[in-house]
Amino acid sequence: MKRVIVACGSGVATSQTVASKVQKILNQNRIKANVEAVDIKSLDQYIPQSDVYIAITKGSKDYNIPTLNGIAFLTGMGMEEETNQLISLLT
């Protein structure tokens, strides 16, 4: 099963909110994937087993997997473009 990681600075409120929205979008589009919210400090251990990374904060590291803008899912601005890209990456 595909895996999506959502990370923010603390891994609590913001990433959980975005992860929940992303899971709902995937369910509505009948895409099976695990969506998990993590804190940025533990991101390195999750990236190798993930298919997509949704970043809430701009990090200094470049990961070797597709990275989407998590702020779009949080605010709704640019969400359609990010959603289309997410669906494309997971299908």
How would you describe this protein?
This protein has helices at 13-28, 43-46, 70-75, 79-90, and strands at 2-8, 33-39, 52-55, 67-69. It has four helices and four strands. The protein has 91 residues and is an alpha/beta fold. The longest helix has 16 residues, at 13-28. A four-stranded parallel beta sheet has the order 2-1-3-4. It starts with a strand and ends with a helix. Helices cover 42% and strands 23% of the residues. The chain has one domain (2-90): 3-Layer(aba) Sandwich (Rossmann fold).
Our count of domains comes out at 1
Major sheet, described briefly?
A: 4 strands, parallel
Overall mean pLDDT: 90
Q: What proportion strand?
A: 15-25%
Helix-and-strand structural type: alpha/beta
Poorly predicted runs: none
**Sheet with most strands: strand arrangement:** 2-1-3-4
User: How big is the Rg?
Assistant: 12 Å
What share of the residues lie within helices?
Answer: 40-55%
The name of the CATH architecture is 3-Layer(aba) Sandwich
Q: What is the chain-wise order of helices and strands? A: EHEHEEHH
Instruction: Please report the first level of CATH classification, the CATH class.
Output: Alpha Beta
Distance from N terminus to C terminus (CA atoms, Å) equals 11 Å
Number of strands: 4
CATH topology call: Rossmann fold
Work out the helix count: 4
